[in-house]
Amino acid sequence: MKTLNENQKWSASLGAYLQENEVSNPRPKIGDDDGISNKAMNAVLVLFMLLTMGISIAAAAAPTEEVKYRILLRQAMLDIDRMDFDEAIVKLLEVRANTEENANVNHLLGVCYLNSGKSYEKAVFYLNRALSDVSADYEEWVLEETKAPLEVMYLLAKAYEKTEQFDMAADMYAQFLASLQTGKLNPTSKTYALISKSAENCRIAAVQQGIAVDNNIVLNK
What is the torsional sign of CA 122, 101, 150, 134? Predict the structure, then answer.
């Protein structure tokens, strides 16, 4: 069975949701460095981080491990901003392997695997890891952020849909919609209807696979 809505971009409804709710959290213009070499960008990042951390430049002949991986995380964010997801994956995996695991890095890895199409199974894995620590106060593109956004539920639903785990996708779509019941998204809006329709389509597909799905998980029938 083919994944539902194969010809529709997976991020359409989430993008509409973000636009509709006037999310005023613009990305930093980290992609506006055309003409600046990576070496020069690294030097600027090292200088900035040393200054903000109060480390004497004279005493810092080389970046500390903490600074090194903060720079690598920033570079991964730059790659994501440029939609260079393969490069971002390499950097994020190195950060994850050498620092304390956190939901934000797992979330970013899930985003990259989902967008690149390299492995939807890995997208499911990392987004599930991120799901354990989500926050409505998530700050995008902030290096110190360790939690994942609520939208990780939507992303995980898409990853489940891509891997044809339609019962799990339907449940996760419903959980995402339930998380928005605080008034952030109007239940009568077009975006809400689109996401709810995705949940319903996945429920139907799960039944066709012979998997019983609780009708109550579809919130806008």
Answer: positive
